[in-house]
Amino acid sequence: MSASYSSSLLAYCRPGFEGECAQELAAADAQGGGGGYARAERGSGLVEFVAADAEARRRLAVGARWRELVFARQLLQVLGGARDLPPRDRLGALLPIVENDPRRWCDAWVEAPDSDAARELAALCRGLNAALIAALKQRRLIDRGSRWRLHLCLTAGDAAFVAAADVAEAAPWPGGIPRLKFPRAAPSRSTLKLEEALLVLLDEGERERWLKAGMRAVDLGASPGGWTWQLVNRSLHVTAVDNGPMDAALLASGLVDHLRADGFRYRPARPVDWMVCDMVEQPGRVAARMAQWLAQGWCRYAIFNLKLPMKKRYDEVQACFATVRTALHEAGKRVELRAKQLYHDREEITVFARVV
């Protein structure tokens, strides 16, 4: 059984955070007039947001871009969906939805949400992806110069959404997840959080301009050095602030000064380019401290994590953002905030901030 979803958007998120993702989309929808509603199952890693009509969906897609959302890893325009797919001809049931759309596609991805149940569909996704590309080529629906990418999202072995993504506005990784390998030389797996943050929250040009060899950085709560390692790997000089021990190889690099001090009390003798922080503390307290660094001009750029409470997590995020913006406003400055719940995050989000 297939159906049209001309007013729906599909968002991938971390399983367990469907409610926060839905709240975020509802808030964006309300700014454009409202009338929409979310459909989600806890633990599914997926939220379908049904706008009031096709025009409302268009406004929502403009007002809620993937890069500007915190809890959505990917945001897609739904073309249709089907249930009770025949096991021997799933594509046969889904291709009419594709053929009913006038677009051609630069590529096509078959994927499943990042949930325990959906992970079992990985092998099926790989097999269907090759078959889908072949079918699109046969129908002359592949155009490498197109701005549109086709997505099939399997929610079960016999159910799927058919969706579209504007490649300029969508995450460039299947499932919205950049697959990173743990660097063996790094002292902790937390290094992957900062690596992913730099990849997701900054574009290539920004990384080249804002992360140059010889820049100076401070890592608050640095021990044992997972985040410091990422900065040193880019030839930045780092002051690692933590009462705990630092990795010996990092200290031997000549690019790290280890200062045994409290990250909430330390202030640099002179401004630095970067400040990063992954301290385990109440999010409001971290946000206030980050705001102080930015308002006082102690750093130009900052990346920090906010550990979220068990309840009212969306509200807590908004309160933390307001803390930072208010502090900068009172200092006569404006701040740009970008944030994402990364794949390597758990009960937290990662925020990039800069004074503009």
UniProtKB/TrEMBL annotation:
UniProt cross-references to Pfam families, sorted A to Z: FtsJ, RlmM_FDX, RLMM_N
SUPFAM superfamilies: S-adenosyl-L-methionine-dependent methyltransferases (SSF53335)
Domain (Ribosomal RNA methyltransferase FtsJ) ranges: 188-281
Complexes and interactors: Monomer.
Annotated localization: Cytoplasm
GO biological process terms held by the UniProt record: methylation
Reaction(s) catalysed by this chain's protein: cytidine(2498) in 23S rRNA + S-adenosyl-L-methionine = 2'-O-methylcytidine(2498) in 23S rRNA + S-adenosyl-L-homocysteine + H(+)
Domain called RlmM ferredoxin-like: residue spans: 7-76
Protein name: Ribosomal RNA large subunit methyltransferase M
EC number per UniProt: 2.1.1.186
Protein purpose: Catalyzes the 2'-O-methylation at nucleotide C2498 in 23S rRNA.
Record keywords: Cytoplasm, Methyltransferase, rRNA processing, S-adenosyl-L-methionine, Transferase
Catalytic residues of the enzyme: K307 (proton acceptor)
Organism per entry: Dokdonella ginsengisoli
Residues reported to bind S-adenosyl-L-methionine: S190, S223, P224, G225, G226, D242, D262, D278
